[in-house]
Amino acid sequence: MSTELEPPVQTAAAAPEGFHRSLGLSDVIAQSLSVVAPAMSGAFLTYLAATKAGGATPLAFVFGLVGMLCLGLVVARFARTLSSAGSLYTYITHGANRTTGFLAGWCYALAFLVLGSAVLCGFGFFTASLIGLLTGADPAWYWFSLAALVVIALMSLFDIQTSTRTQLVIMVLTVAAMLVAAVTVIAIGAPSVSVIDHTTPLADAGRSWDPGAFWPAAAGVPWTGILFGLAFAMLSFTGIEAGAVLSEETRDPRRAVPRAIVGSVVVAGVFYLVVTYATSIGFGVKQAATDWPASVAGLAAVAPNRTFAAAVLASAALASLFCALGVHIAVSRVLFAMARERVLPAWLGVLHPRWGTPWRTIGLDLVGWAVLAVAALVFTGRATQVALAGGADSGVTGGVFAFTFLAGLGTPLVMFVYLLLGVAGVLEGRRDGEPGFQLIGALAAVVGALAVFGSLYYSFVPAAPGAEIPLVVAMVPWVCLGIVVSGLLVATWIRRTRQAVWADMGTVFDEV
Fold first, then answer.
1. Which one, of 108, 18, 84, 110, lies nearest residue 504 by Cα?
2. Which terminus of the chain is more solvent-facing, meaning fewer CB atoms within 10 Å of its CB: N or C?
3. 23 in helix, strand or coil?
C-alpha cells in the first residue's frame, strides 16, 4: 500500500446541502438488521452455506459470528470518530490510504448493487413459493419482484424515517415467527426418515441435541465445506455495517452507530445459530449433507406442517423485501458520498431539495438491479438455471437461479472489502497506539481472507469428483478480478488527472 497522506476531515460548512438529522438509535438498528434480513438469510442463505457444509452449517455460522463481531468492532471504532454517509469507503480511506479507500468504495458499491438485485429476485421467488404452497398454483416470480421494485422506489425516495421504522417492525415480526418455527422443530427432534425421499431411515429419531452439528467429521462433511459455509455465513451478516451510512442523518451518530452495529451482530448471530441448528436437526445432522442442499426451502422444508412452512416463507418474503430496501439505502448513500467528493460523476452527489434524499443514486441503483437480473437470466441457459436452482424446473426456477448466481457473485467482493477494512483497522491502531484495535483489525482481515477463499473455492474445484464446474460459477473469480482491476485503473486516472479531487477524498461532512 502507498503511504499517501491521510485526507483532512472537513466540516459540514464545506457541503452545499446536507441530510436532515432526524434518526435515532432504533432507526440505525433497523437499517443494519433490515439489510442483514435475519429471516430471509435464515431461510435461504443458510441453504447456500449448507450446499457444502451440510449438517455442520451451525459451525460455519459460529465462525461467521466471531468474524463479524471483529468486523463490527472495527466499524464501531471508526464510527466513533468519523460520521459519514460513505461508511466503509470513508473508514478505509482514513485508516489505510486513498487508493485502498477508493477501491473499497468501488467494490462495496458494486457488490451491494449485485446483492440488491439478488435479494429483489429472492423476494419474487419467496412470494411465488408461498402462493404455491397455499393455493397449489405455480405463479411467475418476476411479477412480484417488479412490484417490489416500485415499492422500494417509493419508500426510499420520500421519507427515510418511515422506511426505517417500517423495517424495524417487519424485522421483529419475521424474526419472531422464524424463532417459533425453529424451536418447534428442535423440540420435535430428528425425523425417522429423510424428509426429501421419505424412505431413507435415519438414526436417533426424535433426538433434539446432536453435537455433530458443530463437528464436520460427525456431520460427514470436509473442513473445506466449512470454509465455503463461512463465506455464506458472513454474507448472512452482510449489512451489519449498513447502519453507518445513516451517520449524517442520525442524532448523536458517534454513540448510536457503534451501539447499533455491535448489538446487531450479537442479535443476528444468536438467531442464526438457533435457525441453522434447528434446520440441521430437522433434516438429521448426517443426512443433512445430502438433503439440505437438495432443498432450497431450508427451515420451511423441515417445518412440522403447512402452517409453519407458510409462516417461514412469509417471513422470508417480507424480510427479503425490506432487505432489498436496506441494501438500496446503503448503496445509494455510498454512491452519493463518492459522487459528492467527485470521484464519481458529480451529478450523482445531489440531494433532492425537498425530500433530502440522494434521488439520482436511488434511480441509478434501481435501474442497475433490473438490468443485472435480466442479464443473468437472458445469458444463462435454462438447463444451467435449473441445475443451480436445486434441480427443479418450475415457475420460481429463474428467481432461485438469479438469487443464487448474483449472491455468489457479490459475496467475494464484500468479503474483499471486509479484508481491506481489517487492514485499515490495523494501520489505524498502529498510528493511534492502540494494540487492541490492531489485534481486532488483524482478526477481521484474516476472517475476510478466509471468506474470500471459501467463496471462490468451488469456482476452481468441482463440487463432486468428476463433476463439471458450471461456466457461471467458474467465471465468478474473473468477474470479481475485473471489478478490482477496473477500480484500480479508475483510481489511478483520478490521482493523475484530478489531483484536487483526489486530495479531498475521505471528506467528512460532520455537523456534530
1. 84
2. N
3. strand
Work out the end-to-end distance of the chain between its first and last CA atoms, rounded to an integer number of angstroms: 32
Which residue carries 406442517 as its cell? Answer: 305
pLDDT of residue 154: 83
φ/ψ of residue 10, rounded to 5: -110, 170
Point out which residues pair with 11 in neighbouring strands. Answer: 510
Q: How far is CA 173 from CA 34, 168, 312, 400, in A?
A: 12, 9, 11, 24
**Contact by Cβ (8 Å): 57, 273:** no
Instruction: Single out the residue of 238, 240, 243, 268 nearest to residue 256, CA to CA.
Output: 243
Task: Identify the DSSP state of 201.
Answer: B
Polymer length of the chain: 512
CB within 8 Å of 420: residues ≥ 6 apart = 92, 96, 100, 103, 104, 448
What is the distance between the alpha carbons of residues 313 and 422, in angstroms, rounded to a whole number? Answer: 35
In a domain, 5, yes or no: no
* Residue 273 to residue 480: CA distance in whole angstroms: 30
Dist CA 424 CA 416 (whole Å): 12
> How far is Cα 323 from Cα 451, in angstroms, rounded to an integer?
22
φ, ψ dihedrals at 504, nearest 5° = -90, 5
Cell of 173: 415480526
- Domain that includes residue 434, residue range: 12-503
Number of domains in the chain: 1
Model confidence pLDDT, tens digit, residues 406-445: 988 998 998 899 999 999 999 999 998 999 899 999 999 9
State the Cα–Cα distance between residues 219 and 198, nearest whole angstrom: 20
Confirm if 152 and 124 have CB atoms less than 8 A apart.
no
Half-sphere exposure of 38 (CA within 13 A, CB side): 34
Query: Whole-model pTM?
Result: 0.79
| Amino acid identity, position 242 | A
Residue found under cell 443458510: 46
Is the pLDDT confidence value at 44 over 60? Answer: yes
- Say how far apart CA 248 and CA 309 lie, in whole Å: 40
Residues 367-398 pLDDT 10s: 998 999 999 998 888 888 887 776 667 778 88
Alpha-carbon span 299 to 319, nearest angstrom? 15
363 CB burial (10 A radius; 0-12, 13-18, 19+): middle
What is the spatial distance between Cα 255 and Cα 259, in angstroms, rounded to a whole number? 6
* Residue type at 470 in one-letter notation: P
* Residue 511 counted as domain residue: no
Closest CA to 301 of 509, 63, 43, 69: 43
Distance CA 15, CA 84 (A): 12
CATH code of residue 256? 1.20.1740.10
